[in-house]
């Protein structure tokens, strides 16, 4: 960082810290105790697809890594593309297996990063529901920022958010996760696998 960067208000980008994902189980305990939200067992990783054989091979390796859980009774990973052309890998576990789900999400991110595709990684999310199963919530990890934010779509379809719930969850998780302070970066992930 030089003097001109300081004068013009430029800052160094935050380095991704995938180990932040391991804070999600602790945050889940806080969420359940304070607001009644429980893990659904669903989590996903979003990345921008890249054309080419090298990326296709890494994507196959990642899927094989997660599909290996099927031999132990798990469900194979599901791949999909959203309406914006981004790729998603959805991992499923039992709701009580949150640490295993987080390990899978970490493994996917790490594998893509290790093969030079870190710039294509966008976010990871872990799904939650309230005690009645009516209100969805996701903790979204922004790869390029190394931070989390809550995303709570309103039930019943449409693209509306439960902003008061998002702010409430943000306030209660300050001791558990590195939270994104810039609210303009709390991007909606409508229809994301795992919500």
Structural class of the helix and strand makeup? alpha+beta
Number of strands: 6
Radius of gyration: 17 Å
Which strand-content bin applies to the residues? 15-25%
Distance between the termini: 39 Å
Average pLDDT score:
86
Low-confidence stretches: none
Order of helices and strands: HHEHEEHEEEH
Percent helix range = 25-40%
Biggest sheet, in brief? Answer: 6 strands, antiparallel
The number of helical runs is: 5
Query: How many structural domains can be distinguished in the coordinates?
Result: 1
Strand order across the largest sheet:
2-3-1-4-5-6
Shape: globular
Compile the SSE list and pairings.
Layout: H1 3-7, H2 24-35, E1 38-48, H3 53-67, E2 78-81, E3 86-92, H4 98-114, E4 121-129, E5 136-142, E6 147-151, H5 163-172
Antiparallel strand pairs: 1-3, 1-4, 2-3, 4-5, 5-6
Helix pairs in contact: 3-4
Overall description:
The chain is of the alpha+beta class and 195 residues long. It has one domain. 30% of the residues lie in helices and 22% in strands. The chain has 5 helices and 6 strands, in the order H-H-E-H-E-E-H-E-E-E-H. A 6-stranded antiparallel β-sheet has the order 2-3-1-4-5-6. Helix 3 (53-67) packs antiparallel against helix 4 (98-114).
